[in-house]
Structures are given as C-alpha cells and as structure tokens.
Predict the 3D structure of the following.
Amino acid sequence: MSTAPLINAIQNRLHLAGYHDVSTPLKIAGVEFAFTGAMRGSEGRALDLVLLVDTTTGDYGDRDGARVRQRVEALSRALDVTASRYVITLILSGAALADGVEALSETCRVLQVENIAIDQAGRPADKTAERQLDDRIRVLLPLTLPIALTNPETGSGPAMDQFIAALDQGTDRAFVDAVVDASAAGEAAVTEAAAHAVGQPFRKRSEGETS
C-alpha cells in the first residue's frame, strides 16, 4: 500500500523534530490496532504517541469518523490497561471528517492537516506550504524563537533576550544558559537541566573531598 504524499510530508517534518516511526499495526495488551502510521517522540517528548489517519484514501475505514473514534478509544483503553503513560495525538491528514471529531477530542489531542500543496516526493511545494504544515502541527514541534537584534535602549527584542535582561545581575549565567538551551526540547528537558545545574556544585565539592 503506497503512502499519500501529505502523509509523507507530515512524517518527514516530524522526523526532523526528533520523532521516530513505530511499526504498525500497533499491538497493545494483545490487541492489534491498524493506523496509516504511528510515531513516537524522543527526549522531552518521549511520551508522545502520534497516530496518522489518512482521511483521503480512507484506509482502515478512515473516512468514517465513528470508526476512527472507536479505534482510538479502544487503543486508549488498552494503554490504560498496561498502565502506559503515552499521550496520544491523532493527526487527520486530508479531507475533514464529517462527524466524530469533537468526540475524538475528548479522548486525545486532534490535529487536522489539509489543503497544503505537496509534491510527489512528499515535500511541501513551497515556503508557504512549509509554514502551513508547521502551523497545523505546531504543538508537536520544538519551540523556536525568532532571531532579531535587541535594542539596548528600549529593551525590545526577542522574548528570550528580554527574559535574560530582566534577571538579577547576580544570577548564575551557566544555570540560565543550561535552562535556555534545554527549553527547545520541552518542559521535562528544562526540569532535568535545572536539576543538573543546581546539583553540579555539590558534585564537584564531593569529588574534591578526601577521606
């Protein structure tokens, strides 16, 4: 079964964001669940499970909102049985479903990707299409801040520059740099980086002690 160009474009973009393909059909608690594609996040997004549904080709009955909802709800229950901590995001690729989307949003995060110009190689056709694709799946992508010059007189400029400028002069710069660098990878990465930076002086002191 060939993969639709729009599905390829979504997968390629998520690969760049650190997501990895998961073999389908998914087998959880002894039950198989068929989806057009599945992907898992990494590092700060390691608990993200992304399910791809091709509503244009309609494989696995994916033009029927009720059938899609039943499959996702069954998968969610199976994950609960196994005490999984995965957070499900369902990407509807192609034509919007006539019904069932609101009910789906009660079970998982639902993103709709449609009306984007894609070439046969599975790439956005131009810069506008690239921005449109990113906008549709923005919640899954690392946070990036625009690069711009900061005006030292007015304090205007990128949000991160303004944040750093607002810190007390005595704030540990190594700590700030570690947290800022980790911010692109999500909340868990920031927490881990902060804990590591705070504990570093204690580890150095312990290593320097003699028995």
The chain has a mean pLDDT of 82.
